[in-house]
What we know:
By secondary structure, this protein is of the alpha+beta class. It has helices at residues 4-44, 50-66, 69-89, 155-160, 194-215; strands at residues 96-103, 108-116, 119-128, 132-141, 144-154, 168-175, 178-184. It has a seven-stranded antiparallel sheet with strand order 1-2-3-4-5-6-7, sandwiched between helices. A hairpin with a 2-residue loop joins strand 2 (108-116) and strand 3. It is globular. Mean pLDDT is 77; it is low at 1-8, 34-48 and 63-67.
Amino acid sequence: MCKLRPFTNTKKMRTTIIILAILTLIGCKDNEEKTVSKNDRLEFIPEPDKDLREKYEQQQKNSLTTNSSYQEFMGEELKPIRKKLRPLSNRQEWTAIDKRKIETKSANGVAVYYFLQDELKKVRFLQNTENTDRLIEYYLENGSLFFVFEKQTDKLELKNDPENYEPYEDSLFFKNDELIKIKSNMDCGAPFAEDYRKKIQEDLNTEFVMLFNRLKK
Length: 217
């Protein structure tokens, strides 16, 4: 009986070793499959290229700028002004058209007045100085300005660089007799400072009053 104990213990030990070996192999295989699966996922989601990432970030910044609440507000704010402007800007038939020469110390010009049903709707002022040619158009509704377009050409700059020169153009939007927006082809589209807008409005009002008074003479 005593001789059988070592054989029994040895058999049990071998069985235990085999079971442990099988479990170890299973565990290694499982870990290997997990590693492969993880590596596969990494291959499908590579790190973005630096240039593409920077381009995307810039697009996001631009999107925030163009879709800001201010831009949306101004877009809605300007719609009724554009709607009133559209039928007047390219109109060919008017009830009456009048012209006046405008002479100042520094410039000479001509003002053209356009009427519909005895109501002044548009004033076109062409002004020439030694160095500049200037065109400005005032648009009115019920006697109040709602839009002004101005284009100015520098003769010296045009002469020096005729191929690349571009005259500056301003579109000025009014609401309730107040200048609310200036759009210029020479700026990036950012809002102008309030003090600057007020100064521009004062200058435009002064010139328009001069032109209107000249119509009475």
